[in-house]
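[step 3/7] fold_predict: job queued, chain A
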Amino acid sequence: MKLTIYKYIFHEVWPTFLASLLVFIFIVLAARMLNIAEWVINHGVSPLQVLKMILYLLPGMILFALPATTLIAVFVGFHRLSGDNEITALKSSGISTYQMLPPVVVLSLTTLIVAAFLGFIGSPWGNRSFKDFIFQIAHSKADLAIKERVFCEPFEGVTFYINSFSSKERLMKDVFLVDRRDPTLTNTIVSREGRIFSHPELKIITVHFFDGTIFMVDKNLEDVRTIEFNTYDLNIGLQDMMPALLSRKRAPKEMFVRELSETIKTAAKGNIEYNEAAIELMERFAIPLAVFLMGIIGVPLGAQIRSGGRFLGIVISLVVFLMYYMFLAGVRSIGETGTVSPFIGPWLPDLFLFLSCLYLLRRAGRERSIHLFDRVLALQER
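[step 4/7] structure written:
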């Protein structure tokens, strides 16, 4: 008998979970696609590269959506059962609120395991791969980092300043370039036009200049030479691109647990690097627990509210989700300054969820309504 009820409750919850997860991923992806579309339109990034970007972003998006989707699924499922008086019928048959928890616990534990996998492995891998992928594109296509009327250094030791730039034709006008790659000599090139050519097979980028002047100055400022040219080619090889790529410092969100632990050991206690690494490490454990607690909280919340329909359930779930993430973001900001211990701060939102879970389950088990919801519904009826 109970197994049949558990299956019924589980089948009431999981379709909403999948649907809300897909909706959340679509919304987050749509926001990121604005930036990705700019790369496709302005910089010629291929569809395959776009798919790789989405693949790298997907673990982080799922991890972000799991707390909300778990809460929405359980809340909406029990809200529907409550609105149709099915929970009342179950309680009349001798089944308490606590006896309805096992299918929700199974779902919440499953999402906890998924969130832990994404937090410890998936999300760091995705963030690291995405940043490395963007960095490699930027170093294989110099025009991605070149901006008009701005000093920029797309390659190590090579500084550009241009008056106008056509990314489609890869044509620069009124070019000023400083080449400091040679430790004994600095070359300054002033040219009317310049065009960028990529040679992937040779792993070389060539900047072809038209009608300009080269100013060669040694490091001691003792020898100065000037060369005028009609055309001049400046080659930038793999050895000029790789040092910046290999030396790129990892952000905490790109680190695995071992790297975060090493950063905490080597960084000075209390500085920004130490606090950020400690907060990120604690969040790897705290967020999966929050996902589990969100699922459990959905049972008493959904069971207590009968009116309002599915839309009210989604709205209340989103409000709880936003409160949690605002709390988490606030604690993170305070923890980075050292006002709150970075090892304690990330657990405060979980403590709030745990106490709320105990309070709501206790009131639901004793058949007591939640005063706040009673007031909201009374105002709605007025």
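[step 5/7] annotate
The chain has two domains: 2-138+272-381, 147-246.
The beta strands are 152-155, 158-166, 171-179, 185-199, 204-218, 224-237.
exit 0
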